[in-house]
Amino acid sequence: MATTTVNHHRLSSTTNRHRITSSFNESTLNDINNFSNKSIRLAKSITNLLNLSIEKPSLKNLLQRFNQNVVVQADSKLDLPTSSPKEDISTLWRQIHGGSDWENLLDPLHHLLRREIIKYGEFAQATYDAFDFDSFSEYCGSCLYNQQSFFNKLGLEKHGYDVRRYVYAMSQYEIPRWLEKSYVADTWSKDSNWMGYVAVSDDVETRRIGRRDVVVAWRGTVLPSEWYEDMQRDLEPLGHDEAKVERGFLSIYKSKRVTTRYNKTSASDQVMGELKRLVKFYKERGEEVSLTITGHSLGGALALLNAYEASIMFPTLPISVISFGAPRVGNIAFRDELHHKGVKALRITIKQDLVPRMPGIVFNETLQKFDDLTGTLEWVYHHVGAELKLDVRASPFLKRGSNFIGIHHPETYLHLIDGYVSSTSPFRPDAKRDVALVNKYCDMLVNELRIPPCWYQLSNKGLVSNKVGRMVRPKRSPEDIPSPPIEEENLDV
User: Fold this and answer.
1) What does the alpha-carbon distance between residue 172 and residue 51 come to, in Å, rounded to a whole number?
2) Element containing residue 228 per DSSP (H, E)
3) Alpha carbon distance, N-terminus to C-terminus of the chain
């Protein structure tokens, strides 16, 4: 009985203690909730007064605001000119042309140099826009337009240059992905491709830039992952000195065959013959003459080979190479010879582009720091000249990711150059070039801009409706049909 009484007392004490604790906790929680509610109401009142939000913005909200800002930026430029006004550079042309290796002009990028780089980049881009990639065309691998209408058809007459000669190339090695072939049996050429052109500044542009500028533009490739597999990667001697260059590049530049229609002479012979005539003609008129050679990707490699040869033929001529996304071409002796011959080279690269790292991804100029131990390694590839390095992440208009073809495309380069100020500055808000051009042949623009990928193509892919309503492939105009180059030393300029 006593035990029962004691247990009952303990149970009552425990129950009372639970009630007291529960009552205290409930009271405490109510006080905290009341205090919390008052704090939230006070915070909301202050927030409303200040027109702020106390919620932490989510990543999705930030991206939406960022993308809306990109769209606003793009829309604000729709009615603005797509290029800066031309400025007279006649007193500065030697610096702009690389006379001092572009010292103090690249970072930050001088606005006059930016405009000239874009001009030469558009000359390189033109070799793609005018190229017939249609493998079902009997003219696949040729230029779509004749020399007289070339710049007009491409909307580049604004630059004030005239095309003087087309250049054709072939290769003695089997490099199918560098040179386009037609499926048609009866084709304009079974061996050659159109590889570029020689142009010269007209009188108005000559006065603006301070000299008669002869330009050579070399066509490249936009499929780096494919042509890298076909790259020979072997260094071959260039002349009798220690300079060596990549075998495949040299083959395209030097190959010829008597039995062909367009390469009885090599691309090298065609270009150098035209340069010899033009330089002689304008020099005899007492004009100052410069040579600017440009190209993208493979075209940048051919540009260096061209510059090397031109520096031997014209030892006192100012020669500059402006290349975009170009691979390494030769060894350190090749680099040194170009330097000693006075050739100025400006390489524009993108950090995320793979092609400028080729060939010699492992064995390249970075090994030069070990020369004291190894001596000069003649089989190691070296880049040539000054470098302007761009970054895809600098542009708010471009997608991130591993779109290697899109990153390598020349229009991506031109877009980034147009917006580049310095290595520490944001993308230039007053960049002029049309952003839509980036998606010409790729898918690099953010989706919010609603620019379709790969939009640049012939209407109906070149087909037209004939007189009875059938879709047919039209015949080329006679003046646009390619004709073999004329090899005459005395041909009038």
Assistant:
1) 72
2) helix 224-230
3) 132
Q: What one-letter code names the amino acid at 65?
A: R
Rounded distance, CA 323 to CA 405, Å?
17
* Cα gap 67→392, rounded to integer Å: 16
> Choosing from 171, 297, 320, 395, which is the catalytic residue?
297
State residue 464 phi and psi, 5-degree precision. Answer: -130, 160
pLDDT at 404 over 70: yes
* CA-wise closest residue to 454 among 469, 468, 444: 444
| More confident of the two residues 59 and 168 | 168
Write the single-letter amino acid at 320. Answer: S
φ/ψ bin of 454: left (φ > 0), alpha (ψ from -120 to 50), beta (otherwise): left
Ordered DSSP codes for 303-334: HHHHHHHHHHH-TTS-EEEEEESPPP-EEHHH
**What one-letter code names the amino acid at 405?**
I
Q: Which of 97, 408, 409, 415 is catalytic?
A: 408
Span 275-294, average pLDDT: 98
3-state secondary structure of 342: coil
User: CA-to-CA distance for 421 and 273, rounded, in angstroms?
Assistant: 39
Record the tokens describing residue 139, joined without a space: 């003219």
- Token pair in block for residue 211: 């000299």
DSSP-derived 3-state class of residue 227: helix
- CA 349, distance to chain mean position in Å, is 7
**Which residue is associated with the tokens 């017939």?**
132
Q: Is 297 a catalytic residue?
A: yes
325-357: b or e for each residue (b if 16 or more CB lie within 10 Å)? bbbbbbbbbbbbbbeeeebbbbbbbbebbbbbe
Cross-strand bridge partners of residue 398: 445
Order of strands across the sheet with 344-350? 161-169, 193-201, 212-218, 289-296, 319-324, 344-350, 386-390
Q: Where are the beta strands (DSSP E) in 69-191?
A: 161-169
Q: How far is CA 97 from CA 116, 127, 180, in A?
A: 9, 22, 33
What average pLDDT does the segment 93-110 reach? 97
Q: Is 395 a catalytic residue?
A: no
* CB distance 154 to 205 below 8 Å: no
pLDDT at 67: 63
pLDDT of residue 489: 45
Q: Which of 129, 132, 353, 418 is catalytic?
A: 353
Q: Which residues of 219-230 are buried (b: 16+ CB within 10 A; e: fewer)?
A: bbbbebeebbee
Integer Cα distance of 55 and 50 in angstroms = 14
353 catalytic, yes or no?
yes
Mean pLDDT of all residues in 387-405: 94
pLDDT of residue 282: 98
Q: Can you give the C-alpha Rg of the chain in angstroms?
A: 32
CB 117 within 8 A of CB 417: yes
